[in-house]
Amino acid sequence: MVLTSLMINTEREAVVDFSEPFMETGIAIVVAKRTGIISPTAFLEPFDTASWMLVGIVAIQAATFMIFLFEWLSPSGYDMKLYLQNTNVTPYRFSLFRTYWLVWAVLFQAAVHVDSPRGFTSRFMTNVWALFAVVFLAIYTANLAAFMITREEFHEFTGLNDSRLVHPYSHKPSFKFGTIPYSHTDSTINKYFKEMHYYMKQHNKSSVADGVADVLSGSLDAFIYDGTVLDYLVAQDEDCRLMTVGSWYAMTGYGLAFSRNSKYVQMFNKRLLEFRANGDLERLRRYWMTGTCRPGKQEHKSSDPLALEQFLSAFLLLMAGILLAALLLLLEHVYFKYIRKRIAKKDGGHCCALISLSMGKSLTFRGAVYEATEILKKHRCNDPICDTHLWKVKHELDMTRLRVRQLEKALDKHGIKTPQLRLASSSDLLNHHHLKERPPLLGNLSLAASAQDLYRWSYKTEIAEMETVL
Length: 470
What we know:
Elements: H1 10-13, E1 17-18, E2 23-32, E3 34-37, H2 49-73, H3 96-107, H4 120-147, E4 151-153, H5 163-166, E5 177-178, H6 184-192, H7 194-200, H8 208-217, E6 222-226, H9 227-236, E7 242-254, E8 257-258, H10 265-277, H11 280-289, H12 312-344, H13 351-356, H14 365-377, H15 384-413, H16 426-431, H17 451-469
Parallel strand pairs: 5-6
Antiparallel strand pairs: 1-8, 2-6, 2-7, 3-4
Helix pairs in contact: 2-3, 2-4, 6-7
């Protein structure tokens, strides 16, 4: 007789006599676990797609437009009704894009400079958004810790009739799997799955040990063989990396093979039935099929350092941000080169200016003059050419002042009194720009000139001086 992992099938029964099956079995698939893997999209998993769309499209946009709308309608916002009488107020900077920056900074609690709104209602709305951000970040952080735990991944096949195995070329890249040629498993696959059998020839192994070793090393994605044998090898794996997946196929049993018409078949069948009835076969199966692998065996590895693939999602997020920033940089250049110049020339707070420039006082003509004056006060040359030109202008100014003093002395020697000529400063011009009368450009100038000529000359001087400031 023959006693081994001999599966009962019709081909073998044609040449030998089998005893009663002493253990059930079938065709199973063994794969290896890949431990320590974190999904590249783990940072998105705390919320589902609908929740992310609700936060990104509804919550952020609604908060941004409400803050901007309340600030626009506020008396201290777009019309600046509360600040028009005060000329010393600092230039007001707030727009739709600045509102977006404020909303994102509050959401991520970033310590960056933001232009805050002035209106009470818009500030209250900003505080409401800050409260929402606190609750949202608390929920996200609490759930993110659960999704960032290292996981065990494996190829979860449903069984031998899995489409990825039955049609191996339909999946790219194809899975690598094999079995032992000329075995019961090989003949069954050849009988029912022709395409699979043809594909497996390049990955077949000569022994079960070789097939399991290749699965552990990653040379094979799966190994197909007798389910009971594979269960035994899985239990004997000390690292607990092996596991059988899917349902067993072509269920049958192990039997003792005897020569045809053997007189010992009935004897063994009687004893096997007695062993099964009193539970001896089940006790033997539990004793011998239990291996060294135990649940919780891998707990001592929890303090191992993290590998690159375990926080790959952070790098993917960074790379996506860099690519998006490069695209925004290109759009920024296009905007400042072709669009912003035209918007900045308009003396008013139109819709385009409200989106990008500023609402309120800084959009008016005087506000632009204030900004230009501040820039001139803080201007510093950044290259030698600028220094050279600046030195030439200062030198010409000094020589002009010296020539003026020489002419004044010459006039005094001839008894001619020098007229007290005083040009109005740029601040005087700006303070009287909204009045209909013109500021006195000449002080005690006793020259023969009509009022109309004097007005025309003062108006041209005012325009020239404003152009110089701008």
